[in-house]
Amino acid sequence: MQEATVKVQGMSCRSCVRTIEGALDSIGAEGRVNFEQGTLHVQYDEAKLQLADIKKVIQNKGYDVVA
């Protein structure tokens, strides 16, 4: 398993946290958003996903990702 922590910009409420975590779950990644710090800690199988895939799914939900 690979792990990464990235900054996520554009979150305005707890619903944003659920949206991001749900999007990650749908692609087989496990993520935990820290709303107060604006960060996401994610674990994923590097044989199936790359960090770029994770960034893309978050960006497709309307948030900005800064690695």
Describe the structure.
With 67 residues, this protein is α+β, with helices and mostly antiparallel strands. It has 2 helices and 4 strands, in the order E-H-E-E-H-E. It has one domain: Alpha-Beta Plaits (2-Layer Sandwich), CATH 3.30.70.100. The protein is globular, with a radius of gyration of 11 Å. Residues 2-66 form the HMA domain. This is Copper chaperone CopZ. It holds the Pfam family HMA.
Entry summary:
With 67 residues, this protein is of the alpha+beta class. It is built from two helices and four strands, in the order E-H-E-E-H-E.
Please write the CATH class name.
Answer: Alpha Beta
Shape: globular
Low-confidence stretches: none
Element order, helices and strands?
EHEEHE
Largest sheet: 4 strands, antiparallel
Give Rg in angstroms.
Answer: 11 Å
Look at the structure and give the mean pLDDT.
96
Q: How many DSSP H or I helices?
A: 2
Helix content: 25-40%
Number of domains: 1
Give the oligomeric state: single chain
Determine the structural class based on helices, strands and strand pairing.
alpha+beta
> What is the distance, rounded to the nearest whole angstrom, between the alpha carbons of the first and last residues?
18 Å
Task: Tell me the strand order in the biggest sheet.
Answer: 2-3-1-4
The CATH topology is what? Alpha-Beta Plaits
Share of β-strand residues: 25-35%
Number of strands: 4
List its traits.
67 residues, alpha+beta, Alpha-Beta Plaits, four-stranded antiparallel beta sheet, 2 helices, 33% strand, Copper chaperone CopZ, HMA_dom
